[in-house]
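My current task is to audit a protein record that another person submitted. Thanks in advance; the entry in question is below:
***
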Amino acid sequence: MDQYEVPVLWSPDTRLHDPRNEVWVGVPTIGTETSARVDAILDALDGPGFRLVEVPPATDRPALDAVHDPELLEFLGTAAERWADGPYAELVGQERVVPYLFPTPAMTAGLPARPAVAVHADAGRFGYDTMTLVGPGTFAAALAAVDCAAAAADLVSAGAEPLAYALSRPPGHHATPAGYGGSCYLNNAAVAAEVLRAGGAATVGIVDLDAHQGNGTAAIFYARSDVRYGSVHVDPGAGWFPHVVGYAEETGTGDGTGATRNLPLAEGTGDGPWLAAVAELVEWVSGCDALVVSLGVDAAADDPESPLQVTAEGYREAGRLLGASGLPAVAVQEGGYHLPTLGGLVAAYLDGHARGHGPVS
């Protein structure tokens, strides 16, 4: 029997987002979430074992509307134009939307706050950090990333594929129902889960392998029992993003009580304990009807964002473990920023998953 070819759902529009910089502790730094990530992954997957499938723009996106508040979508769709119409490039040389003010309860203190008129203040109503800048192509790229995730989930829901990979860029697992941050604007994994649910999966399991907990995905499904969210990530208590959430005590609320599982790990953790945590999450989602893997590969040792020490073989074994669950699966790209090794890490995971799943007729 010929080797199974994993479909790779991608769009050239995912290259349109150009953040240029991040603003970290008040200082502009070179952005790591660049369009070169798309090409690094494509180069590694343009060969045996993979099949590239270009995804056209969707005509409607019901799963996206189910995941995100309309005010967030409206803001992201208009923010770059509002910024360009303002004085920011001329006055301070800033061509990207970056929040200046955050209307937190500490500021409003119970007062009847209204949306700010100035876009540099209004941005803080949705953006929760200064690292995640919005430019002219950001919303188009984020929509293309969503379309890739939805198309991959459609293939799996239809029974056409046991595994499909969405090359979604920018990533999405830090995007909350009404907010963006952590280099994420729209939650691609959550959209994939919603598409799988609409396609007949009574319960969807999400396993997040990114080095950092996907606070956005956790928030979207925190009170739901039909989508389980499990994450293995560096301990936020050691000072890592998302800092204020991602602890083991967070297990869901209401109908979702018990449907969230966080497995934080110490800095420097390598393959052994990391894979043990992955295996625990595989067992936890084994009763689900379908699987979404938030495939962040920034837990790898060479990654500039990595506090962990996972190897390529560790990712391959994680793929084997998740593939052996037998669940129809969508893998959605999240983090991973070391361009020389990025594509190889993604390929290693997908190869392991496909082989772990077993023969495909």
